[in-house]
Amino acid sequence: WKEEDGVGVLGRELYLKSLGIHNGKRRVRGLSSSSSPRVCIVGGGPAGFYTAQQLLKARQNAAVDIYERLPVPFGLVRFGVAPDHPEVKNVINTFTQTAQHERCSFHGNVNVGKDVTIDELRQAYHAVVLSYGAEGNRSMGIPGEDLPGVFSAKDFVGWYNGLPSNKELHPDLSFETAVILGQGNVALDVARILLAPVEMLKETDITQNALEALAGSKVRRVLIVGRRGPLQIACTIKELREMVNLPNTRADMLPADFEGIAEALKDLPRPRKRLTELMMKAVKEGGDDKAEKCCGFRFFRSPVEVLAGADGKRATGIRLALNKLEGSGESARAEVTGQLEDVDCGLIISSIGYKSIPIDPAVPFDPRRAIVPNEMGRVQDTAGLYCSGWVKRGPTGVIATTMNDSFDTAHVLIQDMEAGKLDLSVNKPGAQAITALLQTRGVRTVLFSQWEKINAEEEKRGKSQGKAREKLLDVDEMLKIAWS
After folding, report:
1. GO cellular-component terms in the record (predicted)?
2. pLDDT single digits (tens) 273-288
3. Binding residues for NADP(+)
4. Domains plus CATH for the chain?
5. Are 229 and 299 a contacting pair, CB within 8 Å?
6. Residue ranges for the binding site?
C-alpha cells in the first residue's frame, strides 16, 4: 500500500474499513453462523452471466457482482455473433434480467488485474469466478503473418461488430480474392459477411463504417482453407447451409477432395453425416455458373508462408502445403506431402482460434493450453477461486456449450459452500469495498442502469438509419453518455 501504487492513505483506510478492519484488527459485529455469500465474477460475457444466473437461482441469499473491462456488457454476444444472426443475440434479454436481479450488480469500465487485483477481490468476496474469455489470438507461426493485409478473424469480426479496440482496422477490400485460414463457424461468418449482398446487412447492427467499406468491396472470391478433409470440417450445418445458399454466390468444392467420402457416410454420427451430405450435394450440383461471386472450400492444405509483393510492403498471396491424412475420423492428423501451392490474394484472415491470456500473476495459468488450470472449475491450488467458459476449457463450442459449462462451475461453487469449504461465517463487503478502492485509483464504474443509457442512444442512432442499432465505437463517448 504505497502512494506509487495508486492508493494513498485514504484509499487504504476506506478499503480496510469496508473489509471490517480497524487498527489492523478485523471487527466482526452481529454475525450469524452463516452470512450471505458474496460472489465476484470477472467478465461480463456469456460465461459470466450464465454463472451469475445459476448462482442467483440456486442460492437464494447469494449476492453476485459482475466486473467487466468495457463500459458495455455481453462480451462475444455483442462483439462476436454475426450481425445477420440476431436470433442468437436474443440471449441478451436473459442476461439483462440477470443484471437487473435485486441480488446482482454490474460494474463496467473495470480492468481486473490492472485497476484492481484478484487478491483484492478475494479479500472482499467469499468466492471469485474468472469468466473473462479469450481475447488473444493464436499465431500461425509462419513468415509474413505480420504483413499488412493479414488479419486475425477475431480482429476482423471485432471491426464489423464495433469492438472499440478494432475500430481503426480499415481492411483493404480492393482485391478480388480473400483467403480465410480455418473452417470453423467464425471462418464461415467472415466469408459470409465478405460475400453477402449489402442489402442483407444494412438493417442489422453491423457498424456503419464496415457497411460502407463492404458496399465498396471488390472481393468476389473467398477461399476457406482447412488442413484436414471434409470429414473433419469444424463448422456446424447451419453456417454451412447459409454459405451454400448465399445469393449470387457459387459454392465451389473440388471433387478430388471427396474421393472415398461416400463409403464413409454410413458410419458417421448423424450431425457429421448431414454436414457431409450437404457438401457432397454442393459438389454434385456445381453451383450457379451465373453467380458473380464464389466461395471456395479447400481441404488438405496448411499455410506455410504469407507472400509479399515486389516492394515487400504488403501481402499479395499465400503459400500452402498440400497435406494427406494419417488415421481417420476426428483424430486424423494432417501430414505434409512436400507439394506446395501459391494462391494470389490481397486479404488473408487467420481463423485458427482464440486464446485466453493471463490477467494477474497471482492466478495460475497454463501457457501451453492457454487456460487457467482447474478441476471442474475449481482453480488449481487456490481455494475460493473458480473459472467458467473459455478461460476454463479453451475457446470451443457455441453459446449453449458455455451455458452448460458455466452452470457446472456454479454448481461446484455451491457444493463448496454447502460443504463448508468456503468460510461464510465472515461477512464480506463485496462491491462496497471494491468501488471505494477503485475511487481512490481514479476509476469510475459503469452500472447497468448507466449501460442502459448507452443502449438507448445506440438504438436511437440505429433507428435514424433504419438499423437495429448503431454501436458506439469510442469508449470515452460511451462513458460520457453513461455518466450524463
Report:
1. mitochondrion
2. 999 999 999 998 877 7
3. 183-186, 227-228, 239, 397
4. 3-135+356-446 (3.40.50.720), 137-354 (3.50.50.60)
5. yes
6. 47, 68, 76, 112, 183-186, 227-228, 239, 390, 397-399
